Amino acid sequence: MRRDPSCIFCKIAAGEIPAKKIFEDDEILAFHDIHPAAPVHFLMIPKDHLPSLADADESDAPVLGRLLALAGRLAREQGSADGFRTIVNTGRVGRQDVYHLHIHILGGPSPLPRMIAKE
Ligand code: 5GP
Ligand code: ZN
User: 32 near 48, Cβ under 8 Å?
Assistant: First the structure.
């Protein structure tokens, strides 16, 4: 398991910083975003320190697949019964703030604002 001692999400994964956890197993953690941008807003991370999606390779495929495969169940459990938005900000261009790969799950009872204007 890779770990960056200065990484805030590694510290959350290690239990050194508190977080409102909603799911945990040996390689995945999901917890509420500290600044929710929607009625449901949680983050899913691999416990292994992978800085961003730009750093992922084929060896990361199993855990990345598991994260996506779990998202729907956790979103439903959190109150997003009819869909959700999945965001992975990556690097400078993607305006990533925390360099430990994380998937944002945003949802709630009502449709979110559109992200990209149509027409
Ligand atoms: P990014 O811009 O890197 O995709 O998103 C980082 C997210 O992590 C932000 O939505 C921010 O609110 C959240 N975040 C940053 N620090 C903490 C923290 O210490 N605890 C929790 N629960 N969320 C955090
Ligand atoms: Zn980390």
Answer: no
Q: Under a CB-based contact definition with an 8 Å cutoff, are residues 67 and 46 in contact?
A: yes
CATH architecture of the domain with range 8-107: 2-Layer Sandwich (3.30)
Among protein residues, the one with the nearest Cα to ligand 1's atom 12 is 35
Over residues 14-51, the pLDDT tens digits come to 999 999 999 999 999 999 999 999 999 999 999 999 99
Residue 119 has pLDDT above 80, yes or no: no
> Phi and psi at residue 91, in whole multiples of 5°?
70, -170
Q: Ligand 1 mean position to 61 CA, how many Å?
A: 23
- Average pLDDT score, the chain: 96
Cβ(45)–Cβ(53) below 8 Å: no
45's tokens: 């991370």
**Residue 83 · residue 69 · CB < 8 Å:** no
Cβ neighbors of 77 (< 8 A, separation 6 or more) are: 22
